[in-house]
User: What shape does this take?
Amino acid sequence: MPWDFWLIFFVLGVLLPWRGRRRLQKLLTLPQMTSRERLLLYASTIAFQWLAVAATGWRAWARGLTFEELGLIVHGRGRIFLGAIVGAATLGSLQWLNLRRMGRSSGKSREFMQALAERIFPRSRVELVSFMALAATAGLCEEFLYRGFAMAALTRTGLPVWSVVLLSSILFGLAHLYQGRGGLVSTLVIGMVFGTARIAYDGMIPVMFWHFAVDAVAGVAGPKYLLRPGPPAAKGESQRSVAV
Assistant: This one.
């Protein structure tokens, strides 16, 4: 594997999880966040993900990875469209039910998710629109990084398909380590589902829609089930899954 691919894997497997944990620790030290701070958080995350995709795509194409290898070719539009819609509806529904279950649970895990929700989930229409842009970015960028580049690069090394799916899913789970052990495990499982679908559909277009659906539902259902009720916040203040 070329040195630049090793560097990208180091960033995905070490630097990104470390960065996510550090940002979370910083957020949790804040008693509350204003709407402006939340919008800046969304904007900086969007910018960072597109920058990561630009750098990764540059090295991938420089090393000769094709659109086919990266899963960017559509094979059978009808089949892809149906898979995208059905999968998005199914996973979105499961995400909604999971957030509702979390909202009714108790214990440390509930307290952690509530503290996270109060800092990152949208509380106004403007924030929700921005969060949807973040969800769309995650669906495009994270899928390119983990189901596109990572799986293509690992496949080129001659690894069996099952190990390609597993290793890319571990990287995906580590990127969400900031959500705690439960977030790591659940995201790893989702990554395996997405990786298997990427192979089954011979492309990652459907899983981009699925990823967006999971995060978009989190932006709508998360505040409903995880935020503590309280008095309206002052103007300019913030009054949100578990985003993949």
